[in-house]
Amino acid sequence: MEYIINLFISMKSGMFVTFYIFIVTLIFSLILGILVAVLRLSKIKMIEMAVSLYIFIMRGTPLLLQIIFVFFGLPIVGITFDRYTAVFIAFILNYAAYFAEIFRAGIQSIDKGQFEAAKVLGLSRFDTYRYVIFPQMLKNILPALANEVITLVKDTALVYVVGISDILREGKIAVNRDATLIPFLVVAIFYAGFIYVLSNLFKNIEEKFEYYR
Amino acid sequence: MLLKVEGLVKSFRGQRVLDNVSFELKEGEVVSIFGKSGAGKSTLLRCINGLETIDEGNIKINGEYLYRQNENFIEGAKGETLKKIRQSIGYVFQSFNLFPNLTVLDNIILSPVKAYKLDKEKAVERAVKLLEKLNILDKKDCYPYELSGGQRQRVAIARACVLSPKIICFDEPTSAVDDEVKKSIADIILGFKKENMAVLIVSHDKEFSYSISDRIIKIEEGKIIS
């Protein structure tokens, strides 16, 4: 037991790294995802096509490959990023594409009459989304959003490819050092605990949205 | 003249649904557009409320052009002019289209506060007066799902009236309502008439249309026949 507690303490910097990558990616990809979703629904064909192509590339290729491309590939053409910046660019662009598709589906699930009512009431496009569409959309997309956020927690482990010491990498080092698999158990407990907290958080948010039907 | 529609033409995929429609609406007048399903009545109402573009013709509301026929194109109102037009015309949808995430009161004050920058207290005061008049003040903190069909309709009417429009449009106000609700809608409409508002009703309910209107416009296959 003492060994496990010591492992938790020694791996706290890895836990922080995992949490840091998760939270930064989540915040920025959600913001970018909303913008991309709105642009994806643009009536201007060129914008819609460009955004669709971006989403296709992000969803059509593995995130691991995208991290490798940003960190190892772009320097070939003279664009260099440090490890964290490269990871954030790849993660945010990738997750924004997934979130955008969830948001798009959510927006499209809203009855056309809601947009029309807002229009005849003279609401601006921004106010229509802010007060009418987004609150309703959020209620509809919460389960899909929760799934994606949980996947993001586990995907943070991919940062090993650029040598960032997240929890999994630290666990691996401890396994090699101590010749036991217990560090992996500690890593698993960390991920499961993190996801348990997130699942409950989403459950609470879903309950908060039950005030209307 | 509050509303003037001239030579209105509207087509969907090459098929004319409104063909050279012209009519006028004055203050204190209740006019029903009567016709069978698919005659183009609702499309006409949607055009008048700027929810559909038009192919030809003019629509003038309270002295401002919503759509104006130029030599080769239709010019639609924009910016402040459009806002002014929207303020002078209210629209009660057939399915009411209340915002389910907002309370009755918030449904009513959203537009005056956010779109027309009316002081929130004043907007609430106006909304409360309207709800009182429509006999649903006790429902002001309810969400739309907690209301009956008739109550929802009255909220939709209050929402359409909060900016004191000069014209109010009803799309099939008596569809799927019982006689009692029908009577209360008739009373509300006659109340608007007394306040010198113009009321435009689209309906396929002959009895209701004839009983309440000063004038009936019959529409068939997109054309006014009488």
TrEMBL record, chain A:
Predominant location: membrane
Keywords assigned by UniProt, alphabetized: Amino-acid transport, Cell membrane, Membrane, Transmembrane, Transmembrane helix, Transport
One cellular component (GO) term of this entry: ATP-binding cassette (ABC) transporter complex
Ranges in a coiled coil: none
Keyword Transmembrane helix: yes
UniProt GO molecular function: transmembrane transporter activity
Residue span, ABC transmembrane type-1 domain: 15-202
Residue intervals passing through the bilayer: 17-39, 51-72, 84-103, 179-198
Membrane-protein topology: Multi-pass membrane protein
InterPro entries: AA_ABC_transptr_permease_3TM (IPR010065), ArtM/GltK/GlnP/TcyL/YhdX-like (IPR043429), MetI-like (IPR000515), MetI-like_sf (IPR035906)
Locations listed in the record: Cell membrane
GO biological process, one term: amino acid transport
Pfam families, sorted: BPD_transp_1
Family note: Belongs to the binding-protein-dependent transport system permease family.
Name the record gives this protein: Amino acid ABC transporter membrane protein, PAAT family (TC 3.A.1.3.-)
Lineage: Bacteria, Bacillati, Bacillota, Clostridia, Eubacteriales
TrEMBL record, chain B:
SMART domains reported in the protein's UniProt record: AAA (SM00382)
Keywords annotated in UniProt: ATP-binding, Nucleotide-binding, Transport
Taxonomic superkingdom: Bacteria
Domain named ABC transporter: residues: 3-225
InterPro entries from the UniProt entry: AAA+_ATPase (IPR003593), ABC_transporter-like_ATP-bd (IPR003439), MetN_ABC_transporter-like (IPR050086), P-loop_NTPase (IPR027417)
Pfam families, per database record: ABC_tran
Record bears the keyword Nucleotide-binding: yes
The keyword ATP-binding is annotated on this UniProt entry: yes
PANTHER family documented for this protein: AMINO ACID IMPORT ATP-BINDING PROTEIN (PTHR43166), PHOSPHONATES IMPORT ATP-BINDING PROTEIN PHNC (PTHR43166:SF4)
Protein family (similarity comment): Belongs to the ABC transporter superfamily.
Protein name: Polar amino acid transport system ATP-binding protein
Species: Caloramator proteoclasticus DSM 10124
